[in-house]
TrEMBL record, chains A, B:
Swiss-Prot/TrEMBL GO biological process terms: negative regulation of DNA-templated transcription
Domain HTH deoR-type, chain residue ranges per copy: 17-62
Identification of the protein by name: Heat-inducible transcription repressor HrcA
Annotated function: Negative regulator of class I heat shock genes (grpE-dnaK-dnaJ and groELS operons). Prevents heat-shock induction of these operons.
Gene Ontology MF terms: DNA binding; DNA-binding transcription factor activity
Domain (Heat-inducible transcription repressor HrcA C-terminal): residue spans on this chain: 104-323
Gene assigned in the entry: hrcA
Species: Micromonospora zingiberis
Entry-linked Pfam families: HrcA, HTH_DeoR
Entry's family note: Belongs to the HrcA family.
Length: 340, 340
DNA sequence: CTCTGGCACTCGACTGTAGCGAGTGCCAGT
DNA sequence: ACTGGCACTCGCTACAGTCGAGTGCCAGAG
């Protein structure tokens, strides 16, 4: 395990060159392009050690070296300093996001921005309902037996659902229902509403029990079970950039994975205390994504985290740059959310 | 232009074989696989004519023939009878769509269903707001200077938008506003609301003029300008099926085109009286899609058309099957919309 | 006039061989 | 511990040769 500083420098150089050129890198080219201060032969010896330890490998004998997933991991963990964005980039982000009129708009702009800046596939989760608080519940009578339930969360997210009532309900009763529901639920975090929703049924006037029961069913369904998580995606065209060298020739599995909301949620939705997460190749739990890397992070107003965002690209990607971009975009979106 | 029946039969056979095998088809193979009742030599002569007329071509000398866009066009127009779906398929469609709880759900299910049945990229436009009627307008007070405007269309589509008022408004006034707006606009087709919205400002009480002005601005924006058209997409992974033989090796342009909502709308949104439209290769106005074909149609409750749907695939696709599927799915969705 | 069988021809796909060169591993020397 | 040198490996490219599917054309039969 003895990896002295120079061996690490060699690994860093290999990663940087390979990411830039997409071609296996040999000892001679390395000493030419980086000031390592030693001869190719020495580098070769270091390479042999690095290969033995599993950080790099040769596609075939008599070819240069290529980093392995493990090599990238070491690079990310110990060898790369996050490169700060240029002021121009920061301003671009700010300006682009500032134009948003709407939560939907914010999410759309964010995902496009991420895709464009990183030149990769971007994924943004809508602010999770479970992590939001109820700002207001609205009941709109459509007919005597139909209500439109509109849930407005403090993150600005709005969800609606049609409710089919078991029996006709008078307009005054709708007002009644609305008041009761709002009194009990406004300000509560959505993930904690289920018990309260149960209690609602008992508390309301007897002749409204039926209506309230279906209403609360739909409420629970909307808030907790279904739909709950929405996702925006952009930049899939970037997958086809690397001339099929990345992703070992077939985009099929990647595209398939990206079509599954569940998969995407798994990718970026598991938000932990740690600010930012990088999953490299094999580290991905999803089989279809074994040839890809994912950089993801949570975002939200202030320290609260309401959702995740991230990008997906070939394992051979510019980690420092991507990490910096994802982090910066997430921070700006968080500020934007906090303002409103 | 003398294309007798046999030449047409040859063309049909070529198209069918090529679609099935993805390989240039030669004269010998043709007579073996189809009962044409003539010798290869005769077929060759017919092929020479077909080639001269531009319906087929040779990738290189001494290779079989491949249909041109023009050949596919002729095939679609005159040589293919729409093959009816099997009862099993019909039932599958019905069952799958029947489970939908929601307009959103209907659209999502539809697009996935289309992608799955045709094994191609599916696109479904949400019921266009411009073509819907207003069922209800709701104003939800968020704070004294903020309203949430919710527009509910008769197609079940719901659109919401935050309104920042120029000055605080009392709760009673909100009720007033809501009543006025609903009285004037409910039942009106959205594309015809603009003049009425203008009139609203004049009619309302003086102390509400300011509020009504911003409100109507947002209303117009929401209904007409922005956002208005939404699109669902599925099955992009199917693009990567044909092993890069379709789409001349690069998915890039296709994926790029699919990312642009505007492009997608152009693809399937131009709904005309004609029931179903097939655009083959070069016939596509969008440059990036010159290597693809699009089968699209309008849908809606009864004879009204509220949106478009369709699929996109390689020019080498099973036109009869795809056409039948798209038509059937559109019809079922129409019925579903009519029921509610 | 139409169809057919025959024949020469074309040209892409595949195979085998050879030379080149990037890159390596090893070793002896400083 | 580093370096220069050297033999070796092996993928890549070019080139020649063969094979065969498929064609176009033509003369002859119906």
């Amino acid at each position: 395990m003895g990896l002295d500083d120079r061996k690490l420098a060699v690994l860093r150089a290999i990663v940087e060159d390979y990411v830039a050129t997409q071609e296996p890198v040999g000892s001679k080219a390395l000493v030419e392009r980086h000031q390592l201060g030693v001869s190719p032969a020495t580098v070769r010896n270091d390479m042999a050690v690095l290969e033995e330890e599993g950080y790099i490998r040769q596609p075939h004998t008599s070819a240069g070296r290529v980093p392995t997933d493990r090599g990238y991991r070491l690079f990310v963990d110990r060898l790369s300093r996050v490169k700060p964005l240029s002021p121009a980039e920061r301003r671009a982000i700010e300006r682009f996001l500032a134009g948003a009129v709407d939560l939907d708009d914010v999410v759309h702009r964010t995902v496009r921005l991420l895709a464009q800046l990183t030149r990769q596939v971007a994924v943004v989760q809508y602010p999770s309902l479970a992590r939001s608080r109820v700002r207001h519940l609205e009941l709109v009578p459509i007919s005597t037996t139909r209500l439109m339930l509109v849930v407005i969360a403090d993150t600005g997210r709005v969800e609606q659902r049609l409710v089919e009532l078991p029996a006709p309900v008078h307009a005054d009763d709708v007002i009644d229902l609305r008041r009761t529901v709002n009194e009990k639920l406004v300000g509560i975090q959505l993930s904690e509403t289920p018990p309260l929703v149960q209690a609602l049924i008992d508390e309301c006037a007897t002749h409204l029990r039926g209506a309230m029961t279906t209403l609360s069913t739909v409420l629970l369904e909307t808030l907790v079970e279904r739909h709950e998580e929405r996702i925006a995606l952009a930049g899939t065209a970037n997958l086809a950039r690397g001339g099929l060298l990345d992703f070992q020739g077939s985009l099929r599995p990647i595209l398939e994975a990206l079509e599954e909301e569940v998969v995407l949620l798994k990718l970026i939705g598991e938000v932990e205390p740690s600010t930012l997460r990088v999953r490299i190749g094999d580290e991905n739990e999803i089989d279809n994504l074994r040839a890809a890397s994912v950089v993801s992070t949570g975002y939200g107003p202030g320290a609260v985290i309401v959702g995740g965002m991230g990008v997906l690209g070939p394992t051979r990607m510019d980690y420092p740059g991507t990490i910096a971009t994802v982090r910066a975009v997430a921070r700006y979106v968080g500020e934007l959310l906090a303002q409103n």
